[in-house]
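step 4 of 6: structure.
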Amino acid sequence: MGTYRDACNSGNFVVSGEIGPPKGTNVETMLHHIDMLKDKVSGLNVTDNQSAVMRLGSLAVSGEIVRRGGDPIFQTTCRDRNRLGLQSDLLSAAFLGITNVLCLTGDHPVVGDHKQAKGVFDFDSVHLIQCCKKMNAGADWEGNQLDGGTDFFVGAVVTPESDPLEPQMYKFARKVEAGADFFQTQAVYDMDNFQRFMEQAREITAGANVKIMAGLVVLTGLGMAKYMNRAVPGIFVPDSLLEELGTVPKEEAVHKGIEIAARHIRFLRDNKVCDGVHIMAIGKEEIVPEILQLAGVTG
Amino acid sequence: MIISTKKPFEEILEDLEGDTNIVILGCGECATATRTGGPPEVAEMKASLEEHGKKVVFTEIVHTGCHELDVKRILRQNRETVDTADAFLVLSCGAGTQACRAATDKHVVPGCDPLFLGNIQRSMDFMEKCSHCGACVIDDYGAICPITRCAKGLVNGPCGGTSHGKCEVDPEMDCAWVLIHNQLKKEGREDKRTMLHGPKDWNVIRHPAAVVDRGADKQKMGSEV
């Protein structure tokens, strides 16, 4: 498989997956997931202390994906490092052969497992995008020349179900203005809402070469879907899906979730709603190949 | 107004272990308003310490607890009594406690936990709206400070944690970005919403900060030239 950047620029429907590094040094399962997915998707996100829970680092795992012949999308948040640390890690990423960077704010430490930690947030995600672009132009944030620049393909995130949506769209516009090459959205489940979001987003990105991938998190049961609605900011699972999940016995719920995800992928691709999808399996990586097969997006 | 809360009494007793004669200082300004170091709290602390075998040799509500000259004057005027003290317990913010530090070389113990610079919304209802960042930027944000009122201090818009107008850190707390956008709309200053803001200069003020009414600071302080 070629690079994520090539896939995004090809005009074809792009599919990426996600790797969640373990809490510890036992990487056996994670390496299995990397090997299982690296040739089935165009890019593999690596989460950065996701949900503010301390884990093996996204930089090291992204480097390992490069070594194994996959194309990582290095997630990096503004929560744990100031502008010195972020830029140093970006140079380290370039050194390791990583080209895709996904710039995030990061969840607040109080939602994670080190609740007393100081959140840094020296840069915000918009600054981080600008910073990658500056480094691509051969200089650091302060304008000091780099001895050897970078060639990052710079990504960002947006939450289509954010309520209210307006402030979120203004921030989306700032990220586009800062030079983001691609976006991966927070998980979306309501295809009508998402189409309306895409209309607004396309107005903002008009004239710029910006790719937008719909985020998909597989629903593994009615309980999970209800939890997402109740507890996860920016996620909305419509009643029709709750009912659909409710019609099957518990042991078949995962399969129903796979079916729904594959249906959404086909819908988004066939109707050219967006440029691709980003599948977040969150511990259920084993089911990703089945989703891809059902959706008919890759081998 | 500096908002503080009372330290647990057990913690204070632990800090005062080995000290018998105690001076208690309160503060006539913020700690009085927050009911953590005013006359009733100082009297209550005196009674509690005496119940636990301490001898309270002197109490005073300093008019402005962080005014070092005020604290020094009070201790000087009562030198005979305060010289018998083993320790000074200060019911005020950390500035007040350290004003006491500047006035004596004896054991100084904080009786309160200082929390934040707070607006008084109504009696005993305080909210942090300014964090003294050194360079006020709020005109771009409808006079609502994102550095202070966004839990992450973001300057270009909300994060993905905003939910139904509330913050991911505390579902009771308003998302500052929803307030900012609504306010700018009300004012008809929509253009401010499309501004791209650079990161803050965190070294505008270097900590510990000091301003002295002389030299380059003189004009900024608004004093007579």
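step 5 of 6: annotate
 - The mean pLDDT of chain B is 94.
 - The two ends of chain B are 29 Å apart (CA to CA).
step 6 of 6: archive
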